[in-house]
Write a structure and sequence with these properties.
By secondary structure, the chain is of the alpha+beta class. It has ten helices and eleven strands. Helix 1 packs parallel to helix 2 and helix 2 packs across helix 3 (about 125-135). The two termini are about 25 Å apart. The structure holds adenosine-5'-triphosphate (ATP). The site of adenosine-5'-triphosphate (ATP) has 20 residues, from helix 1 and helix 2.
């Protein structure tokens, strides 16, 4: 095999709690991760000259060692003791710096893709260990589907996929730095924490209402304060008929949960009309 294609799916957080800060600076989290049908397309090709080359269709992305694809490819080649040259083409559909783990999922797809292309036969357990060295969300992107994520994001418990529904995912024309959000989170002043255990039970019981009524993200306290447009998008989604709406990850992406695709499509038209978002997708949950 000379070439391999992979889809790298983005995620949303149905619930996101931060429990504390570790001495090494990482935050202890407790989140419900859900893969969604917005994905990047990656093509991995063997090339005769050594080295890792990346081409992407979005100018703002780094193509050097700062790209998470590069970090993942380098780690895989080193692990396999291979000097094979690799060319990766990225078609970026997931909004960038959006709270949808776009970079992390590309890194996970690279580990999985190159393990296959180069016939590495590295077992899942070791791939997960390699993944966390690249970033806290990368192990989840290897596992995919629905999961409870704890520790710094590397302690994963797979969950059943929630009941079918439709999503509207919108990103305003701002980029949010995850580092800024965590640095400005004031844990001691939080009035309440999301009921992540209750949401887990609701998912296990396939209770969509139980899930949507528990949608909460503590990082909204930082990001909405700094960028009120996120709150406005949430309002607009609720007004357009969403069961609930929430910011994903450190933002600024907002998702609304709708009973049906028709309702989500109708809400998309409304949101398109008021100009709060730059990128807008109707999507659904994806199973691993
Ligand atoms: P998370 O939800 O994990 O916090 P995010 O969606 O907020 O991630 P990303 O889209 O992963 O953020 O991008 C964050 C930064 O990482 C970008 O500013 C970008 O320059 C850099 N980056 C490196 N590699 C990639 C990649 N393959 N795709 C997207 N961004 C990348």
């Amino acid at each position: 095999m000379e070439e391999l294609k992979k889809k790298a799916y983005g995620k949303i957080n149905l619930g996101l709690d931060v429990l504390g800060k570790r001495p090494d600076g990482y935050h202890e989290v407790k989140m419900i991760m859900q893969m969604v049908s917005v994905y990047d397309e990656l093509t991995f090709r063997k090339i005769p000259e050594p080295g890792i080359r990346i081409a992407a269709d979005k100018e703002e992305l780094p193509l050097n060692e700062d790209n998470l694809i590069y970090k993942a490819a380098k780690q895989m080649l080193e692990r396999l003791g291979s000097s094979q040259g690799i060319f990766v083409t990225l078609k970026k559909n997931i909004p960038i710096a959006a709270g949808m783990a776009g970079g992390s999922t590309d890194a996970a797809a690279t580990l999985l893709g190159l393990n296959e292309l180069l016939e590495g036969n590295i077992p899942m357990e070791e791939l997960l260990e390699m993944a966390v060295k690249i970033g806290a969300d990368v192990p989840y992107c290897i596992l995919q589907g629905t999961a409870l994520s704890e520790g710094i994001g590397e302690v994963l418990t797979p969950l059943p996929v929630p009941p079918a529904c439709s999503l509207l995912i919108g990103k305003p024309d701002i980029n949010v730095s995850t580092k800024y959000v965590y640095e400005n989170l004031q844990l001691d002043t939080l009035k309440q924490h999301p009921d992540i255990d209750g949401m887990r039970r609701a998912i296990e019981e396939q209770d969509l209402e139980g899930i949507t009524e528990r949608m909460e993200n503590v990082l909204e306290t930082v990001t909405i304060q700094r960028y009120p447009v996120i709150g406005e998008i949430k309002e607009a989604m609720l007004k357009a008929g969403a069961l609930n709406a929430l910011m994903s990850g450190s933002g600024p992406t907002v998702f609304g949960v709708f009973d049906s695709k028709e309702l989500a499509e109708k809400a998309k038209k409304e949101l398109d009309g008021i100009g709060l978002v730059k990128e807008l997708f109707v999507a659904e949950f994806v199973n691993s």
